[in-house]
Amino acid sequence: MTAPQSIALTIAHINDTHSHFESTPVSLSLDSTQTRVYANCGGFARIASAVKRFRAEADQKGHAFMLLHAGDCFQGTLYYSLFKGQANADMLNQLGIDAMAIGNHELDQGNGPVADFLDRITFPLLAGNWHVANEAADKEKRVSEKPALLPYLPEQKRASVMIKTIAGRKVGIFSLAVEQMAALANPDHDTPFLPATEIAKNTVAYLRSQGVGTVILLSHLGYDKDKSLAESVSGIDVIVGGHTHVLQGDFQNIGLDNQDPYGYRVNDTWIVQAGCHAQAIGRFTLTLDAKGRPTHFEGQNYLLLGRSLAMDASREHKLTASSYQAARDYLNQQQNLLILPSDLTLKQYLQQTYRPRVAQLESDIVTYVPQRLRHVRVPDQQGGSDVAPLVTESFLWAAREQGIEADFAIHNAGGVRVSLNAGPLSAALIAGSLLPFAIDVIAYRVTGAQIRNALEGAINNATDNGVIGLGSGSFPYCADLRYRYEAWQPMGARITQLDIKRGQHWIAIDDERQYVGVSSSYTAQGKEGYDALQTGRRRSIGLSMAECFMQYARAQDVLQLPDQPLVCYLASPQQGDSCWQS
Q: What pLDDT digit, counting tens, does each position of 101-127 carry?
């Protein structure tokens, strides 16, 4: 019997789930009157339900089916803070992932946690531009010896690949991750990430030489890089992407954004990405001809919702029966939503295995917040972040409590993730939402000139003012250090005032003198413009970012803002002469 002239392959995909195993409340606008309701959205148990539905529908239609993850499952919530990669491995295994790309947050704490993750997963982790062949032989944990890792192959100058045969057609999958991995995360020095473009070309050529008709890139490069790669590399049929949290599709029907259409096409390449935080799932179907070449693409993203609705995120204010039914009728009509229950087996596993320790921290109230504290990265018309200075102060306070004679602290704005609402502040919110990155705090010794250069470099990186930045998260906030930044000045002269606190007084920094600073290990290693902080003399204070803030917060009756801002960020000369009183 001859094979049919065409077959169909359905692929579901998620990305940047960041340990969001439980559903989260989202605010939805239901109609032109801007009626708003809150619904439970996403979570791994609801993803499991969607995947089961998609598999069943694919089986009924005679389609092949795969489930892909485009990277960044680590970090993000209290589940990662408490259990690191173990919980992610368990939960992803139960979803039945066919393959996952490595993301930058998998490497926030070096190769060790990835090695542990590779020991636990039952699916391959693709990392086609990760050069691990020269990894030191004497390491306690070596990723290069893990069979679940599909890395760069230096002799062939290409990525390792997966090739699946479906009804006689070969489908090839490979992966590429952000080229600036060393700037964003902490891969071991002997396992660098290489530029993507040539590796992509070589890998596509290899796959075609093996008779592969369909080529899929599982990418953690970011949306714009995916587009540029599709421009410069021919032969990639679909890029399943992540890293930049893009929810493709028009979701204005529920009050969300309208971004590029799902399956954005560049040349002959379709590009897809499915948001973040396990709130959505993408699904597309490829029609493959007799040679396995895709002739048709169809699909979309789906936001995953539960059936319960409320008027507020706390779910204390319920909808009336008529309002609930009207909202439910509206949501049921939307083609880009999936309203379905959580998978009971996965939900029970999470509740029994990992939920109890999370619940303990949720009931642990460390202090109270008297008024809402706003967090922004780069200061705007309303000023800078209220939260980041308190977090930075906690690093300095914790270091001094450990007996370290620290002079100042600096923290990057991107390390702080949320604003704080008025009311009780729990340990769970601190470790799971406010400071979810499980990163140590480091003490180091630098000169005044290095401080000055680090501040300017970080701001330039955050604002693209003179350098190509990696995002606004590098913007610096301080404790016992204040600075004035004038964006219109030439490079190297934009920090026009830099003071350090001595007792109750501020004095000018001496560029030649050495000072002891405290920062997250991410910042202290010179990431994202903080190159000047890279010094040989450094040590961990023995606490993570969340632990510093918890201890600091417990020592405060309430969280109070500093008397005056320590950051004077001036984008133009018209903004004024001074940001504080001397």
A: 999 999 998 999 999 999 999 999 999
Let me know how long the chain is.
Answer: 582
Secondary structure (DSSP) of 405-468:
---EEEEEGGG----B-SEEEEHHHIIIIIS-S--EEEEEEEEHHHHHHHHHHHHHHHHTSSS-
- Each residue of 485-524: pLDDT tens digit? 999 999 999 999 999 999 989 999 999 999 999 999 889 8
Q: Which residues have C-beta within 8 Å of that of residue 534, sequence separation ≥ 6? A: 524, 525, 526
**Three-class secondary structure of residue 334 per DSSP:** coil
* DSSP code for 191: S
User: Which whole-number Å values give the CA distances from 575 to 164, 487, 491, in the listed order?
Assistant: 60, 11, 20
Whether 219 has a pLDDT exceeding 80, the answer reads: yes
d(C-alpha 146, C-alpha 139), whole Å:
13
**Could you tell me how far CA 58 lies from the centroid of its own chain?**
31
Average predicted confidence (pLDDT) for the chain? 92
Contacts of 359 by beta carbon, 8 Å cutoff, 6+ apart: none
Q: Which of helix, strand or coil describes residue 327?
A: helix
- Radius of gyration, alpha carbons of the chain: 25
What would the DSSP string read from start to end of 458-527? HHHHHHTSSS--S-GGG-EEEESEEEEEETTSPTT--EEEEEEEETTEEEE--TTSEEEEEEEHHHHTTG
Helix axes 344-353, 355-362, angle to 10 degrees: 60
pTM of the model: 0.83
pLDDT tens digits, residue range 414-458?
999 899 999 999 999 999 889 988 888 999 999 999 999 999 999
- Element counts in the chain: helices (H) and strands (E): 15, 29
User: HSE of 332 in the Cβ direction (CA atoms, 13 Å)?
Assistant: 8
Q: What are phi and psi of 516, to 5 degrees?
A: -100, 120
Q: How far is CA 195 from CA 114, 131, 181, 391, in A?
A: 21, 11, 10, 35
Q: What is the torsion angle, in degrees rounded to the nearest 10, for the CA atoms of residue 433, residue 436, residue 442 and residue 443? A: 0
Collapsed DSSP state (helix, strand, coil) of residue 44: helix
The phi and psi torsions of 18 (rounded to 5 degrees) equal 50, 50
* Percentage above 90 pLDDT, the chain: 78
Provide the 10 A C-beta neighbour count for residue 245.
16
CA 240 – CA 219 distance, rounded (Å)? 6
